[in-house]
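DEPOSITED CHAIN:
***
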Amino acid sequence: MRIYAVADVHARPERMDRIRRNITKYAPDVLVIAGDITSYRKPADVLSNLNILPVPVLVVRGNTDLKRMEKLFDAFGNIFSLHLNRIKIKGVNFVGISGTVPVPFRTRVGFRQKRLIQRLNALVDRETVFIAHPPPYGTLDRVMGKFHAGSRFVKDLIVEIQPRLMLCGHIHEDFGHARLGDTHVVNCNMANNRQGALVDIERMGNPVIQLLAGS
């Protein structure tokens, strides 16, 4: 299974072009977008361009994606919302959660935590690929290289369940790959001409992660 993962597309044409080129070049089995797909305006135009890609597109909303986009996703046959949903592709389970970040530097993802913890616990296990827009607090979440701005909710879930892989974005300054316990965390944002990440994942062994930096 080859995953092409991106985040923070922000409806920018040059980022959409990079996505199309990399799908052709690397032949992934699935495209995962970890939030901030649009920039508030004309989301249907962006989704129309994603819908015609030759691979399934799995998405969660970020802070620039309006809540009504959940209904828009349903109108496109090749785009699948992962929000509190499990989708299996080639034997790999993908689970996600959409959320917003109302204040800078200290992420408070808009989750009703107790209810969501219960629902996610029923969906996420150690073999899951888990997707959220914000990174876990303390991992790939540094703003200006100093301030941690990740989600404590996401961190707590990862520490408790230890899913195999977590894909995120949101913090443009902290693109990269790190470990949180047994979980491989990838901040795959597309800021500064980055192109996301490729992840090759098999039933056994660690994921093989390739960061696609530069234009």
About this structure: Residues 101-111 have pLDDT under 50 and may be disordered. Residues 13-26 form the longest helix (14 residues).
